[in-house]
Hints:
Layout: E1 2-3, H1 17-20, H2 39-63, E2 66-67, E3 71-79, E4 81-87, H3 113-127, E5 132-138, E6 142-149, H4 152-160, H5 172-182, E7 192-198, H6 206-218, E8 222-228, H7 251-259, E9 266-271, H8 274-287, E10 290-298, H9 304-330
Parallel strand pairs: 4-5, 4-7, 7-8, 8-9
Antiparallel strand pairs: 1-2, 3-10, 5-6
Helix pairs in contact: 2-9, 3-4, 3-8, 5-6
Amino acid sequence: MAFSHPWLLWLLPLALLPLVFQRAHSKSYSWLDMLPADPLSDLIGLILKILAVLILTFIVLGISAPHSNQQLVERIGVGAQIALVLDRSASMDDPFSGTSASGSTDSTIGETKSAAASRLITKFVQSRQNDMLGMITFSNSAMYVLPLTENKEAAIAAVRATAGNALFQTNIGSGLTSAAGLFDKVPDSGSRAVLLLSDGAGRIDANTQQKIKDWYDRMHLSLYWIVLKQPGGLSIFNENYVPQEDQPLPPEIELHEFFKTFKTPFNAYEAENPKTLQLAIDDINRKEKKPIKYMEKIPGKDFSNICFMIAAIMIALLLGVKYLEVKTWKS
């Protein structure tokens, strides 16, 4: 048992006041010895005083807001611990262009990449039941948005809050390392994943690459990378691409080759429009439905209303007795 306002319990001694003060009589007698002994009335008077003490006690307890403590109960569900890593570089505010994978014109082509990502990831979050979700955004550096939490409303609000002014750089390395930090000191549920969504890539230095590989291996993090590819742009799956002499691989292909060296599972997707983005997210949704252990928070029960209800019943009893007393004198 706990109290939201424990300092109000100092008022409890005031509940003894009915025992201190004598009952005022509506009739006066010059000599009380003329009155015969009435043990029944004395007993009823004592009971009424005790009733008044209990009324004041329950009122003080009620305003102190008593409640039981929150409990954590281990459950077995289906889901994962997922860190969303969203690109917020300026190019994400460009609209999709081109045609759908089937060759027909897509009715949602004019939608910006950031708006489509926000809309579809919101649906993804809403469809998950027992996930813990966290979020990192990045452009020139990573921005911590939301820790891993079971609060679905908070996750949806975080996704919708990612829209805004952005910078022109794409520092994926910072986003990936910050995402790994979300899992630090969080018990492993049995299924952990990072969902990286970007419309480009950046080069990651060797030290950061090694740090990412070590962290993802140690924390057992699967990686899903969705590339919002411009139609006609370079594909990360193009194994026949040969760079010009003495030139490095394009950042997208270089990053894809780096991800393939992970010891933990890695999956890559390309999306040229909202429909193909939806297909990629749907595939991730299917793959990340595994049995997991998670802690469900059982909120404490508030007992204030019960205290006030008991006090109200006792007050009604006192008023009833007072009504009978008045009727007796009138008769």
